[in-house]
Amino acid sequence: MVVSTYGERVHPGEDPAEVLGTTAECTVKRGGTLVTPAFAVGRAQQLLYYFWTLKRAGRLASISIFLDSPMAADATDMMRRHPHDHKLDHATCREAFGIAEYTNDVEASKAITASRYPKIVIAASGMATGGACCTISKRSAPIRDPRSCFQVSRLPEHAGALQQGAKDLKIHGDWVPIKAEAAQLDMPSAHADSNELMRWLSGFNRAPRRVFIVHGEPETSEALRVRIERELGRPGVVPRQDQEFRL
User: Fold this and answer.
1) Is residue 66 in some structural domain?
2) How many CB atoms lie within 10 A of CB 186?
3) What residues in the chain have per-residue pLDDT under 50?
4) What is the pLDDT of the chain when averaged over all its residues?
5) pLDDT of res. 36
6) End-to-end CA distance of the chain, in Å?
7) Residue 117 domain-assigned?
8) What is residue 127's predicted lDDT score, i.e. its pLDDT?
9) In this structure, what CATH number is given to the domain that contains residue 91?
10) Looking at residue 108, what is its pLDDT?
């Protein structure tokens, strides 16, 4: 069984910090807000680290950064208190995770999203279909501001619609107008791209008789299935809902 989130593409080779920095600078220069959905554990801390490296390089010096997720705040604090359990030392944790203002209550979050001042907001992603980023999208000025930017990774539903230029999204039962720019950031994804998946599938001493392809949009799963059959000579299967297989 193999995931196919990026089954039809290869991750760009650019430095993710550089892409983040360029996007943030362009957004703030035109007076907008950069909203970046992020998983609370792992990705939020990775983004804080990238923004810290940019600030150390003299970029984004005057831009305020907010981490709008109680879970991400707790996870970040845990990483800060246990530096021996990951690759960042205590000093780096203290500096990198100290660049943001953390919000832990609804009123503070509302105040941030209501503000029209240029800023960077890292919000819990909920796969871009729930969590703080949807609440931000629904109520905030930035998402309705063409000067702002909503930076997403390759995620289903809302994020995919944003990438395809959707002008309205249904959030919590209401249609919300989207005027902000949508930018994509695939480089730091934990999901393997098409080449990495094929390399992994090619490394077995005893090749699998069938490969079940899951966790992807229909077109990405189908693209990976075709590549597996063409390059490895093994049948690929994209299971349908409720379909059963005897192994």
Assistant:
1) yes
2) 19
3) 127-139, 155-160
4) 83
5) 87
6) 12
7) yes
8) 40
9) 3.40.50.10890
10) 81
| Closest residue by Cα to residue 170 from 182, 160, 158 | 158
Report the predicted TM-score, pTM, of the whole model to 2 decimal places: 0.77
Distance CA 25, CA 13 (A): 20
What order of strands is seen across the sheet that includes strand 65-68?
A: 100-103, 65-68, 119-124, 33-38, 149-152, 181-184
Nearest by Cα to 226 from 200, 202, 194 = 194
226's tokens: 């075709």
Range of the domain at 88: 16-184
Distance, CA of 123 to CA of 104 (rounded, Å): 12
Residue 145 has what pLDDT? Answer: 82
148 neighbors 32 (Cβ within 8 angstroms): yes
Q: Model confidence over 76-125: pLDDT tens digits?
A: 999 999 988 999 999 999 999 999 999 887 788 778 877 888 999 998 76
User: Does a structural domain hold residue 203?
Assistant: no
Within a domain: residue 242? no
Cβ contacts of 196 within 8 Å, gap of 6 or more = none
In the chain, the number of structural domains is 1
